[in-house]
Design goal:
The structure is a homotetramer.
Chain A lengths: L15 H4 L5 E4 L18 E5 L2 E4 L8 E4 L5 E4 L9 E4 L9 E3 L8 H7 L13 H17 L2 E5 L7 H12 L5 E5 H13 L1 E2 L2 E2 L11 H13 L2 H7 L6 H7 L4 E4 L15 H12 L4 E5 L2 H10 L3 E3 L5 E3 L1 E6 L2 H9 L5 E5 L2 H11 L12
Parallel strand pairs in A: 8-9, 8-13, 9-12, 13-16, 16-17
Antiparallel strand pairs in A: 1-6, 2-3, 2-7, 4-5, 4-6, 10-11, 14-15
Chain lengths: ~375, ~375, ~375, ~375
């Protein structure tokens, strides 16, 4: 048993410096979308604010956002662009309590051993790092989260290029390891192209052969989904029976597709406004307990920015959110670390092999989803 | 003299197979945003369509789009999402004329020597390629385009991280080598952060020292520009007097900022809807004769997709559009080639050094824009 | 069945241009280690030379070497440094027969389909290429070669850093899929460090924990192997019972270790003179029918240079030599292609995952070699 | 003035824990090439050993080696393979004095500010780091070292591929900024190929055109240098008048060429035995005060391993040794840091641009060395 859920130790608010700390300062926003000067900006950690003499946790947090005290006493973590005139915004830029703000960055570390074992902030991982234990632990984590948590997968466009990777991912969806999928137009288009035409960007996803006029394939798929009006309708109209998107639709796994300026199409479900897209992504992340980001710098960083290190469960328990980021390029996986954004486990490899190892490790019969008979 | 403008050789439409070719087929779109089946999709090359027995060039082209015959006889190259019900869309998927469609991919090649010298489709360039002649030719090209053309720069977020790179780029703007700037929220924010606070993401852009609480710097800049309501107003409100964005504003160089899901902020000028953003970018690209993309996979591919290989000048002359893409990573610069999207010159290097070499090669006194006295 | 041994089609020497071709020219070397001017330099393909009116194949070939006619009529392919004064060296720099030299680069291609299926010179493979069929074919190839061929593995230093990768590779050795191992001092040292101390460069190969004073580990292993006088003696002296090197020694798999200037140690088996090292490597490659290079630019290029595209079996049959190169970096895998050195299958991934997928694909029980109980 | 020579602060040996420390333990080696168990292994820092009650500095140090007390009282830092039977080897694996060994890792740091300014161990540098100040300081450092120090350049094979880079480097040699050159067979061969035939691996180093049969070019150059018997003789025999190697020979700059298993040739000066090669490299490094490594992982790590952080000048002054490593790949430049080997300044860029910026920054007229008139 490598995976053991870390226990959260709430701050000791009886400590004199916290007990005697003042209430946090508040200032009403004087216009929409703009925070008052000296606003406090959140981290990914649990943060407590003293309000009317009581320390309160901002429960649904994310990085780089303001904290708004609602009339009902709730503390909302709000992106500055979503602030409304009149919102009461917390001021203060320290973390130790003396401004009524306490950032609790070590809540999950019981002692040195646990620190080392469970929550080490790993830096500088490379293709030469040993990943054996990370894989073993991830197998256990996925089993745990399947029963108790919410697993969100964030996928780059390239993921659907490989026949086996696609089958392995489908197996994960079919077996309940996928609670939500965040991606862009390209992942959806390529996967549906694979489902309909067995190609990605016109190249056979198994034999690698380029089809004649194959560059039309993804354009045609985009165009047909637009004609159908939605992905589910397209699946019905064209008898699609395989793939990642197909399985998500079949199993009611929510898909959030957000647009980017490099999109063709897009297919109808794609959210063209990136800030509305962020809001939709965050609505999924608010429920998420494990995030796995595969081969997408854009979506990985976007997701990382809005993923806190903790989740408050319905019974009030505080547990960690686990984040994995997998990419063939050290630069990409280390980018999050450079930004200080997350306590992430980073793995440097080709995501196609990663997902095969995951599917094998979970003992899934992914070959049944193979199109190659 | 390394740079000589290639001469365009129009197709010989007296050739029997072209002279006897049928008119291209047309079909009216039956709904908004969807092309009829078997629509023709454009390449980056000049494409001619036979209409009423005459071959006509689609003048303002781009890749992966449909061709619409307007009532006035003009051929419009239209992204499928922008098609309106009733638009007459060209059908056909061949390039040799027999469907009334002729793709002229070799218009700028007079003979083998020119092919080799001027328009070679370079593949597999790496950090070990010799770039000396590319630099020498680019110096001459920039001088030419300053007088006769329209130079659009496409810049990634990292560009403003380095003090010298920023000063060199400012020198290029001030000296008339920049006709338009395409970028994202991050480039603008970081550059304005450098202008106001001498940092990027809180790190001094010259000494590399991390400022205390420096992660607030870009958030504060974003928030203040939002308060000011626009970049020009922010420049006035806060007496900004240096940087890339500052110089563009001062010199009336148009800036198109498009959003992405990883944005903080954004600042007011950023276009949140990526498809509106694409349209705005393309409106700039329609005028462009040379594009230089620096360290941004997202914006480079987006721009590459919408940049044709040619431009029709006011006097009807057809000339090439030159595209350069510069990145530290072979994967990024070769990505465009993989997509078959562009006849691009790719250079593998750190863009900070690239811009210093350009500024030195153009003999610009960029040190005057240095903040480091 | 994806793997089918390609059939070799010898050149048709009755064709007039070959039948009437002159004998190849020969010139005696006038000093040791230097070829006469205008010497012919070999490719990786089968090359035929007309001698006394007969076309003869140079059977044991390699790239970039001279061809020496021995008194017994044999054609030896000899690195220039190994030429002796008086050796009769073939002159000529053409490939079509008119100088008595015929390079047969298409001997294994029956028709277009086979070309496409079996021997395609793949270029520009990246992390986004589909590798599913390559894996499936490689599983079959390894089964075939285990029975009929000779599989040489070329391994970089990093391979022993991961606990599972090491166990998978050991399983491959124990199950007969490894006929020879080419590597450097570091691979051997790190693997023996793992065997003795469960670390690589002082870091636990499973838990990733850094051991106190762990940087001594590999130095101590080096020093102790030197004291023992040989790897087998060290294995005996210190009761080593696991790992890649251990299994090779136990199963009499030949290991060729060649030195580099970045070595510590070295352990006694390492060949310090790199040109003697090349000769020893080539003596293995002369027997090899499949080569698999893992995460080492140095050894991969060295091996690639000396690996021909074909092997003449004892019964005279000519068959292809298959070469795979696996690395996390496109630059490394594509480097061979840039040099035009080999018809190689390149896979971009972390070699740790590659070997796990191979071991799983071959249905090996590699967990039994795990040190992690 | 960015560059100021840091002042060395020797340890305070009057401190009780150092004053009362025991002599270090010594044990005679019982066989050649093997250290006694529990030998002390050196770091790159100044290390002091208590011998007969006195603390003595091991003056010419390097990493990962043993310390031998010579009969004359001198402390020699000796690679284990160079230990002779009977050598008195220091034992001990601590750094704080209690075993008579004191590692002085902070000798050049006066206070926090200096630490920050001058000797910061930089980690995780990437293509997005600001390098402006590093360049400015390096210009000043090179001017200083030209007068007072010894600058060793370590160059990878690719460096000679670019026409301008070659001319810039030649300018540095001609102007006295190069005191020694460490490289491999390929750099020398390619540079001489450029000098004789204007190509590198058969491709024109300015126009990038591939010459017919150009793959013979480097083989011919190798073969001819071997015929001439030495580089200087080759330069005379073939009237070579340009390039890096030419300028080094002309200006009596020592060149150490070490072999690797991927070499063709080699040319006569190349040292085939890598351990003899290491010894020769170290003989140069013993004099060196600044090392600049360009685009070679192999030679960079080899050099890094044998480069201490300090040099004892003839007058007894202890000064730092500065090490720069420049590569297009973060993985390569960060590799040294992972190994903990050096306090290095790393720059992520294409070395061709790096050297152009250096030549421009030093105001050298490198165009005069251009072959492109």
């Amino acid at each position: 048993m490598l995976f053991k859920m870390p226990v959260y130790n709430a701050p000791d608010f009886t400590k004199p410096e916290l007990a005697s700390a003042p209430d946090c300062r508040l200032e009403a926003a004087d216009m929409d979308g703009v925070a008052p000067e000296y606003y406090h900006s959140t981290s990914m950690f649990p943060e407590y604010f003293k309000v009317n003499g009581e320390w309160k946790l901002a429960e649904e947090s994310r990085m780089d956002s303001s904290v708004v005290l609602r009339p009902d006493g709730r503390l909302d973590v709000v992106e500055n662009r979503n602030i409304k005139k009149g919102d009461l915004v917390v001021l203060g830029r320290s973390e130790d309590g003396h401004e009524g703000i306490y950032v609790h960055s070590k809540g999950f570390m019981e002692d040195e051993t646990e620190l080392d074992d469970q929550f080490v902030f790993r830096q500088g991982r490379s293709r030469e790092t040993s990943y054996a234990r990370d894989y073993d632990r991830l197998f256990e984590l996925l089993e745990y989260e399947k029963k108790h948590g919410f697993i969100t997968w964030v996928m780059g466009p390239a993921f659907a290029f490989d026949h086996d990777a696609r089958a392995c991912m489908q197996a994960l969806v079919e077996n309940g390891y996928v609670d939500a999928l965040l991606a862009g137009n390209a992942l959806a288009t390529h996967d549906l192209e694979g489902a309909m035409l067995n190609t990605a960007l016109g190249q056979d996803i198994y034999t690698q052969k380029s089809m004649p006029n194959g560059h039309y394939n993804h354009l045609d798929v985009d165009n047909r989904v637009r004609r159908s009006g939605s992905i589910p309708q397209f699946i019905e109209d064209y008898d699609i029976d395989n793939g990642i998107i197909y399985s998500c639709v079949k199993n009611d796994v929510p898909i959030v597709l957000t647009g980017s300026i490099r999109d063709d199409g897009p297919i109808p479900e794609v959210i063209g406004d990136v800030y509305q897209g962020q809001d939709k992504m965050r609505s999924v992340i608010r429920k998420t307990t494990t995030v796995i980001c595969l081969a997408t710098m854009l979506h990985t960083i976007a997701t990382g920015n809005m993923t806190p290190s903790f989740r408050v469960l319905e019974d009030g328990t505080v547990r960690p959110v686990f984040l994995y980021t997998v990419d063939a390029d050290e630069f990409v996986v280390n980018k999050l670390l450079d930004r200080g954004s997350l306590a992430a486990t980073t793995i440097v490899t080709n995501v196609q092999d990663f997902i095969a190892i995951i599917a094998n490790g979970l003992k899934l019969d992914w070959k049944q989803y193979s199109k190659q008979k």
